[in-house]
Amino acid sequence: KGYTSYTETHGDLAGRALAQRVTEVAVPALDEFDGKMVKTIGDAIMAYFEDPAQAVRYSAFVQKSLKEGNVGRQAIEQVNLRIGLNLGEVIVDEGELYGDAVNIAARIEPQAKPTGILVSPTVYEKVQGSDGIVCQYAKKVAMKGKSEPMELYQVIWDGERADDYSEDEITVMADAASLGEETVAPQPTTPSYYKW
């Protein structure tokens, strides 16, 4: 969190170095967790996974690795990633992801606390009870373009630490960009959005 203000204060080269710390952790680990990189978008990464449990395990790995990398750094130099995961059909066309599932993942991400991982109900249903994965209810949010609020669940990746979302109940979702037209047959996958 705070990438834009960090770059404004410290300059583009310092901002790029901060972003590089994330990509040095996140990109090489994708293969280990059967994920595929879609793109980096300034201070964000978009990836997808066929197995939602692997997406959650990957997200926890990235958060733990970044936490270790933050040790001994001043608060302004620390990377605190927010992660949003959703499960649904997407369109994969020439390396890009399109569809409602992608939009929802992008809208979940800003609802997470710094260092948090939030997942949609579809991800929660698939991963709850999976080996090494613990989730708990976080909050309910109103999503732009959706008629009903969505419940979100947090992944407990840091031992017993759980973020307090009690004051956030029924949060209004910020705008997210539309991702274009569908041109290829959809396939079920877990689009994931990572931003700091």
Care to give the gist of this entry?
The chain has helices spanning 3-10, 12-32, 52-70, 100-108, 121-127; strands spanning 35-40, 44-49, 82-85, 88-93, 96-98, 117-119, 135-142, 150-155, 171-172, 187-195.
Write the layout of secondary structure elements.
Blueprint: H1 3-10, H2 12-32, E1 35-40, E2 44-49, H3 52-70, E3 82-85, E4 88-93, E5 96-98, H4 100-108, E6 117-119, H5 121-127, E7 135-142, E8 150-155, E9 171-172, E10 187-195
Parallel strand pairs: 3-6, 7-9
Antiparallel strand pairs: 1-2, 2-10, 3-10, 4-5, 4-10, 6-8, 7-8
Task: Give start-end ranges of low-pLDDT stretches.
Answer: 168-188
Estimated helix fraction: 25-40%
Pairing-aware structural class of the strands and helices? alpha+beta
The average pLDDT is 81
* Overall number of strands: 10
First-to-last CA distance:
4 Å
Order of helices and strands: HHEEHEEEHEHEEEE
Query: What fraction of residues sit in β-strands?
Result: 25-35%
The major β-sheet equals: 10 strands, mixed
